[in-house]
Design goal:
It is a single chain. Strand 14 and strand 15 form a beta hairpin. Helix 9 runs parallel beside helix 10. The chain has 13 helices and 22 strands. The chain has about 425 residues and is of the alpha/beta class. A 4-stranded mixed sheet has the order 20-21-1-22. A 4-stranded mixed sheet has the order 2-13-15-14.
Length: about 425
């Protein structure tokens, strides 16, 4: 298959207008799929995500119930973490693997936690990393401790299966939690489906129980909205309507509309959704802590550089462990805009202008095989004119219709093969 190049051009007048049909939240979708498998009877899920990550998990869960026992999740990190825990409770043997990048993403802390609860999981390659050999069985549960500074998905994976444990789960978190909003999302969904929990200080208690078979409708994805907020920040003006987007959300990324309110993009909520409008100018300097919202880092970093806005970021500790090393990817791409992302110690990163005064022309951005990198770069056409994006199809991981929606609000897109 030939690699693609996407040319993205801004609307001629610099104004954005239209309706964006956001995907449903893959974070919520993936948690609900695991809960449904753990429920004694199935239940309807409305607006399930069509993103690759969710579809891969859906297919993997179907394979787990078949005679086939080898499961490959490709680049789907959430599927790898959630399946590691879920398959440990199933009465069968499995081999769980993924892409070459997945084999470099650590999973040792989750495996060690599960094994301490009685699971039987072995590393088939490098210790601490996929692929895994899993012998599923009934787990008794009990007390465990896990470092909460590595991945909130490890914690969510344990919490989701905990109602199956005979003794429930007493999970003590050490270190500084990252992405705690996703842990809260998990507990809120578990509560919706009838499972009791308690979070006191650094300890989360999950009591033995059974998930209820209740219907659910998945929320629209706030993360997907961020790229259009970024575009409005860079536009001369405009207004975008997001059907189904609500401030009463389980998603931590919902806070982005408050950030953008200070950056010149206001939001008005109606019973049908959210309306974002260009309302003013952005400041010269801005601080953001991404500890609970790491998926927003690329959106904000690229938008700030394009806006000549210097910034201070913290809470980026998990970015090197994502689909790609997102710190390295950002550093590689923003240098093209005359900016640098510099670590200044104590977990603080500075977004600063370089000394170069070169005129920026013919910009071509690499996606680094990362959906969020591709989408974060797209709005920059409003500042620099036509830009090029390599491997644009990576958006299918979370937002399959992203390029169609970009076109709906005024951008022009043209796909070209790379010869």
């Amino acid at each position: 298959m030939k690699e693609k190049l996407l040319l993205v051009s801004p609307p001629e007048n610099g104004f954005l207008q239209g309706t964006v049909l956001l995907p449903s939240s893959k974070s919520i979708s993936n948690r609900v799929l695991i809960i449904r498998e753990l429920c004694r009877t199935s239940f309807p899920i409305e607006n399930l995500s069509h993103a690759d990550d969710t579809q891969i998990l859906l297919q993997a869960l179907a394979i787990a119930k078949s005679t086939q026992r080898a499961i490959d999740v490709g680049h789907a990190g959430t599927a790898m973490r959630f399946l590691t825990a879920y398959l440990a409770t199933c009465d069968n043997h499995f081999v769980l693997t993924g892409s070459e990048r997945m084999k470099k993403r650590p999973i040792g802390a989750l495996v060690n936690a599960l094994n301490s609860l009685g699971a039987k999981i072995d590393f088939l390659g490098e210790p601490g990393y996929p692929p895994l050999k899993i012998k599923g069985q009934k787990l008794k549960g009990g007390k465990i401790t896990i470092d909460s500074g590595t991945s909130s998905q490890f914690i969510s994976a344990l919490l989701l299966i905990a109602p199956r444990f005979e003794k429930g789960l007493e999970l003590t978190l050490t270190g500084i939690p990252v992405s705690s909003s996703y842990i809260k999302m998990t507990l809120s969904l578990m509560a919706y489906f009838g499972v009791e929990s308690r979070w006191e200080g650094s300890t989360i208690l999950i009591f033995p129980g059974q998930y209820l078979n209740l219907p659910i409708t998945i929320e629209s994805d706030w993360s997907g909205a961020s790229y259009f907020y970024s575009a409005l920040m860079l536009a001369r003006g405009g207004e975008i309507f997001f059907p189904g987007l609500s401030p009463k959300s389980l998603q931590g990324d919902e806070t982005l509309y408050r950030w953008f309110d200070e950056l010149g993009v206001s939001t008005r909520f109606t019973s049908d959704g959210a309306i974002a409008s260009k309302a003013g100018q952005s400041p010269d300097f801005f601080k953001i802590d991404f500890t609970d919202t790491p998926d927003m880092a690329q959106t904000m970093c690229m938008a700030f550089a394009a806006s000549n806005l210097q910034a201070e970021f913290s809470g980026l500790i998990t970015l090197p462990l994502k689909e790609t090393d997102r710190i390295n990817a950002l550093q590689t791409e923003i240098i093209k805009l005359g900016y640098k992302l510099l670590h200044s110690g104590s977990g603080v990163w500075q977004l600063k202008k370089t000394q170069s005064n070169a005129i920026i022309n013919d910009l071509c951005f690499d996606t680094h095989n990362d959906h969020r990198m591709a989408m974060a770069c797209a709005p920059l056409a409003l500042k620099y004119g036509q830009i090029a994006i390599r491997n644009p199809d990576v958006v299918k991981k979370s937002f399959p219709d992203f390029w169609e929606n970009i076109a709906k609000v005024g951008f022009k897109t043209e796909f070209q093969p790379i010869l």
